[in-house]
Amino acid sequence: MCQVDEEYNEQLEKRTVPSVSQRCVKCKEGTAALIIRAGDAFCRGCFKDYFVHKFRAMLGKNRLIFPGERVLLAVSGGQASSSMLAQVQEGLSRNAPKKLRFTPGIIYIDEGGACGQSMEEREGVIAELETMFRATGYPFHIVHLEQVFDLPISVLEAVSSAPQRPEGSYKAAVEQFVQNARVKGSCSPGEGHMDPAVLDAQIQLSHLDTQDLANGTPPSSLQHQQDLERLFASVRTLTAKEDMLQTLRQHLIVHTARTKGYTKVMMGDSCSRLAVKLLSNISLGRGASLAVDTGFSDQRYGDVIIVRPMRDYSSKEIAFYNRMFGVPSIFIPGLDTKAPEKASIQHLTESFVTMLQADFPSTVSTIYRTSEKLHTARPPHSSEMETVAKCLLCLCALDTKEAEEASAFHATLVSERLSEKRVPESAQVGSASTADTVGQCCSSGVGQEGGCSSRGQGCCSSNLTPVTPDLKSLLCYSCRLTIKDMTGVESLPPYIVSEAERRHRRSQMKKEISEFLLDDEEDEVAAS
Amino acid sequence: MPILCSSCGQKRAVLKRPKTGHSLCKECFFWAFEEEVHQTIVSAHLFNPGETVGIGASGGKDSTVLAHVLKVLNERYNYGLKLLLLSVDEGITGYRDDSLETVKRNQQQYELPLKIVSYEELYGWTMDAIVKQVGLKNNCTFCGVFRRQALDRGAMMLNVDKICTGHNADDVAETVLMNVLRGDIARLRRCTAISTASEGEGVVPRCKPLKYAYEKEIVLYAYFKKLDYFSTECIYSPNAYRGYARAFLKDLESVRPSAIMDVIHSGENLSVREGVRMPVQGNCTRCGYISSQALCKSCVLLEGLNRGLPRLGIGKHHRLHGKILAQEPLTQEEERKLKAIDF
Ligand SMILES: [Zn+2]
Ligand SMILES: [Zn+2]
Ligand SMILES: [Zn+2]
Ligand SMILES: [Zn+2]
């Protein structure tokens, strides 16, 4: 389909020739400016060609982004996502040989409120990014993490995807697009040449103000700032904090994409980043969702598809490119900046992979290749999205069926049951309302899965008003671990709590009418 | 102030369970530990009444605890199993001698029959002799391959229906991590299976009843039960890459104690893309043992040792299998490559 791909293969073969002369291995003329791996010496020009080509090849190979489609670029200000932004600019520029044909916008999530940054620091960062974004000419959205407290319940519903495009429609869409462009004589980004299929859904939205309401204003209300502080204070471990932040960030991005009329989101995960993510997700019990979490495309949200076009680049290549071609990026401290190595699973994994990579240079690429052999979750073709039980927080398929067969999940439940009171006496439950017992139960920490929230009438929830919903039965294995590391779930944003209550009401309803239902396959909520 | 047992609420707690964080008294811990193994056995349908089960006994903590718990459970729940101990003598002076003494004491304490099969009688080589020829770098490859087959052969001599090994949760989690690091998708998919069915001629089905037991709890169990075990690591160094995975898992556990189970849960729920090629299992044309090549790993290693070409079984030399089978001599060039071994 793409001749550029063939050139690329040729280039790959040549790259194996060791370069002793420090000449570029590609053109054999230019002086080598950098060496990516042993023997891969490139001159400046060829490195740029190679780098730029790789981006287009990744998009070309996967054929997911349609001409004229509105694509939201998630830019954190870091090296990889800034480089992704530069690649999009490069690909959309007028003289690009194989022009990209989508319409980009940018989103930045300001997480300063969770990472302990002062208001001045946050404003400084935002001002710097705004300058960077404005220079691109693309619409951009600055969203503060505090805004999760305003999110609607609908974020947690995976919307069934827009009318399924038939096979082969990609090619037709490209031809159509090129024809339209010829008629109009130009096709610069932002003019919004819509694919007819997406036009309907987006026409009203594309006329909306391109700038988010919050742009330039101080990060949301004081109330929400306190809400956010309270939320993160209630999470006891850095591991769970990082996971929570990731979840909330993702919700904000998807919500913004939906409300602003974007159908794809591009994330800047590099191959190095994905290798760390794969290994830490395994350690976090997210094995069932590895393919969606680390693959090229992530279709869990249905109508908004996440793509990761930077996944073939190592962080080293990106750093080289950015330095050589002056791609701006800024360092923003995160949750685990300056944290000791063993502060969280994610942080520990990153140090481990970095250490191993130094000893065994193929570590990252080997782990990354593992991710490619994993099953990509079946795309949500089924219009009945409700039939598949999905995790309340990460929206992945639930991996917590309480089956009788041996499994780590089952074994953990058995261990907990056997370590607790063998014969629960009714008197004990009554006495559990004393502050002492409550404190003990909730703070005893790790492993008390059955102790706190599962039994509805457990020690914590019994004296809380209003009654906190039991989230556990609505969560996947890994998200349960995160919630378990929280002192309570009252501080969660309202949309999560309301959706949990709604799902419980639904399952309650279903229980009541169960004898009249003919199809018992429709398990909306996993058995609690 | 003494902490009370969270299970019975009466006796003083003597330990904090590494797996769940609960404080338990000795009796409640024993009960919980044994019940969990029982639950594993029942829910995974590991045994059938009347079966002869060989316990792979090394004299180490895992197999010692396994033997003890299986004997207890077999009586408590009338599994109706005929249990026996199966040991492999690798021929490592100072290491195996001592641990085999432990196994022999276990045999008397638990009144279980014991069968010892030695590398020397099966292959004509002791590990000491192998190390002399191959050095310390690749000796674990030999030992691992030979041990696997030795257990099978011992089991067949005794008409054993199933072999159980002392692999614990830490071992399984570590193997998951190691296979991710090595990109070994075929093993990654297999390594969390609690039991392997008979895969062919000469292979006895295996299972891991301690799959969900934490190593630390196994030590606690052995400690409070005052079980006798031999605790020295193999004197010939372990696999370096596994060492990294092990260290990483220990760190993960210290950050979040459930991490061991979480890794296993991940491994159990991975779905491998269809169309990823998995090696086809066949049988070794020389000894009949399962093998994806014409010759099984063990026969190739043995051939290398006997011909004085130790590298034969270490690299990928499938091309040479035909020559070996036909008993043909190798070319000088081939010999030169296979002889060189770095100590
Ligand atoms: Zn060049
Ligand atoms: Zn989840
Ligand atoms: Zn007790
Ligand atoms: Zn063989």
TrEMBL record, chain A:
<dbReference type="GO" id="GO:0000049">
    <property type="term" value="F:tRNA binding"/>
</dbReference>
<dbReference type="GO" id="GO:0002143">
    <property type="term" value="P:tRNA wobble position uridine thiolation"/>
</dbReference>
<comment type="similarity">
    <text>Belongs to the CTU2/NCS2 family.</text>
</comment>
<comment type="function">
    <text>Plays a central role in 2-thiolation of mcm(5)S(2)U at tRNA wobble positions of tRNA(Lys), tRNA(Glu) and tRNA(Gln). May act by forming a heterodimer with CTU1/ATPBD3 that ligates sulfur from thiocarboxylated URM1 onto the uridine of tRNAs at wobble position.</text>
</comment>
<dbReference type="GO" id="GO:0005829">
    <property type="term" value="C:cytosol"/>
</dbReference>
<dbReference type="InterPro" id="IPR014729">
    <property type="entry name" value="Rossmann-like_a/b/a_fold"/>
</dbReference>
<dbReference type="InterPro" id="IPR019407">
    <property type="entry name" value="CTU2"/>
</dbReference>
<keyword id="KW-0819">tRNA processing</keyword>
<dbReference type="GO" id="GO:0032447">
    <property type="term" value="P:protein urmylation"/>
</dbReference>
<dbReference type="GO" id="GO:0016783">
    <property type="term" value="F:sulfurtransferase activity"/>
</dbReference>
<dbReference type="GO" id="GO:0016779">
    <property type="term" value="F:nucleotidyltransferase activity"/>
</dbReference>
<comment type="pathway">
    <text>tRNA modification; 5-methoxycarbonylmethyl-2-thiouridine-tRNA biosynthesis.</text>
</comment>
<keyword id="KW-0963">Cytoplasm</keyword>
<protein>
    <recommendedName>
        <fullName>Cytoplasmic tRNA 2-thiolation protein 2</fullName>
    </recommendedName>
</protein>
<dbReference type="Pfam" id="PF10288">
    <property type="entry name" value="CTU2"/>
</dbReference>
From TrEMBL, chain B:
<feature type="binding site">
    <location>
        <position position="62"/>
    </location>
    <ligand>
        <name>ATP</name>
    </ligand>
</feature>
<comment type="pathway">
    <text>tRNA modification; 5-methoxycarbonylmethyl-2-thiouridine-tRNA biosynthesis.</text>
</comment>
<dbReference type="Pfam" id="PF16503">
    <property type="entry name" value="zn-ribbon_14"/>
</dbReference>
<feature type="binding site">
    <location>
        <begin position="56"/>
        <end position="58"/>
    </location>
    <ligand>
        <name>ATP</name>
    </ligand>
</feature>
<dbReference type="GO" id="GO:0016779">
    <property type="term" value="F:nucleotidyltransferase activity"/>
</dbReference>
<dbReference type="GO" id="GO:0002144">
    <property type="term" value="C:cytosolic tRNA wobble base thiouridylase complex"/>
</dbReference>
<keyword id="KW-0808">Transferase</keyword>
<feature type="binding site">
    <location>
        <position position="88"/>
    </location>
    <ligand>
        <name>ATP</name>
    </ligand>
</feature>
<dbReference type="GO" id="GO:0005739">
    <property type="term" value="C:mitochondrion"/>
</dbReference>
<dbReference type="GO" id="GO:0000049">
    <property type="term" value="F:tRNA binding"/>
</dbReference>
<feature type="domain" description="tRNA(Ile)-lysidine/2-thiocytidine synthase N-terminal">
    <location>
        <begin position="53"/>
        <end position="248"/>
    </location>
</feature>
<keyword id="KW-0067">ATP-binding</keyword>
<dbReference type="Pfam" id="PF01171">
    <property type="entry name" value="ATP_bind_3"/>
</dbReference>
<dbReference type="InterPro" id="IPR056369">
    <property type="entry name" value="CTU1-like_ATP-bd"/>
</dbReference>
<comment type="function">
    <text>Plays a central role in 2-thiolation of mcm(5)S(2)U at tRNA wobble positions of tRNA(Lys), tRNA(Glu) and tRNA(Gln). Directly binds tRNAs and probably acts by catalyzing adenylation of tRNAs, an intermediate required for 2-thiolation. It is unclear whether it acts as a sulfurtransferase that transfers sulfur from thiocarboxylated URM1 onto the uridine of tRNAs at wobble position.</text>
</comment>
<dbReference type="InterPro" id="IPR000541">
    <property type="entry name" value="Ncs6/Tuc1/Ctu1"/>
</dbReference>
<dbReference type="InterPro" id="IPR020554">
    <property type="entry name" value="UPF0021_CS"/>
</dbReference>
<comment type="similarity">
    <text>Belongs to the TtcA family. CTU1/NCS6/ATPBD3 subfamily.</text>
</comment>
<keyword id="KW-0819">tRNA processing</keyword>
<keyword id="KW-0547">Nucleotide-binding</keyword>
<keyword id="KW-0963">Cytoplasm</keyword>
<keyword id="KW-0820">tRNA-binding</keyword>
